[in-house]
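Go through this:
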Amino acid sequence: MPAETAHDRRRLSGARWAVAAVFCVHGAVTGSFATRIPWIQDHAGVSAGQLGLALAFPAVGASLAMPLAGAVTHRYGARTALRGLLSLWTLSLVLPALAPDMQTLCAALFVYGATAGMSDVAMNALGVEVENRLNRSVMSGLHGMWSVGALLGSAAGTVAAHLGTDARLHHLLASAVLTAVGLLACQGVLDPRGSAGERPPRFALPPKSALAIGAIGFCGVFAEGASLDWSAVYLRDVLGASAGLAAASTTAFVLTMAVARLAGDRVVDRFGPVGTVRAGGVLATGGGVLVVLAPHPVAAMAGFGCIGLGVAVVVPLAFAAAGRSGTNPSLSIAGVATITYTSGLIAPSAIGGIADLTSLAVSFGLVTVLAAGLVPGAGVLRGSGRGATSGPPGPPGPPGGRRPASAPDLRA
């Protein structure tokens, strides 16, 4: 094969930073939305239980739309597909805040979830492509950039909530800025050529060998999704925090997730996957207890931060372990991705349903129990290492190793 040139390496490096910017934009939409959930709840006039039901609609939309992303990419090309799907996602941010009642909120969140899922698949596929061509791990850093974007979005949302800004205006401005940045970033991503007659990617049901590993991912993602979507509501409704302080709890949670993901590879290299997840499980459990027993909003914020720090690396290590399990590593990784993604989808609505029947404190008691399950269950990750994905679940990466380094096939 032709040797890789310095020019090729520069273009690959540029493509890596471009897709990193895409991940950042995607995360910023999520952070912008999460901090204004209390405002959206009040505007639509829905209870905690109704809000939990409404928050299930992004899951429905994503589940139905995600399989279509592969076909869109296959037909229009990776770069064009990402450009369109990411723009739909950033523009959909304005919809939930416009909803005046439960029915329109559910419809808005369905569209929000569908565009989120499709753009998530497209950007993860390009992230895996960059990783393969560089012949080294970059996915952890890319998903760390997703967390950085979520942090930036939630920080802006915290300021907007503190100032009492109407979420409709806030999300309109955020949508416009993020759409422009996303379109600019998409210009630099790879546009890989597909093989003639190649079928669009499909999702697989999890094999039995992936269930134990998927259960660990389930616990981690459940705690992450519950904390991300409900931390602001918890501080406001349970502890009487102001809108600005409640929104700041989401920012604190996302901050710890971002720091942990960006530093995760070094920690795993030193302590190993089992030791890292067990320590994280202890930290997340302590955080959950602190949230449930917190007498003051600041204590609850610290608890949410501990949860984020504790569960941040669970999903990447679960994917890494899946790649080394079973007779078909690719199917095992897809299975773990299916289980963990399902957890992220059901967590927000489960928390709302339990809160409607009992209280939000009881709901986060369940989160604490699941976090504690990471401690005894971490042993199933033995033998996993670096190179797994993290952040918002997307299509699984290549099983076992990387492609041999070769001259990249890049389009201008």
Summary: The chain has two domains: 7-193, 206-392.
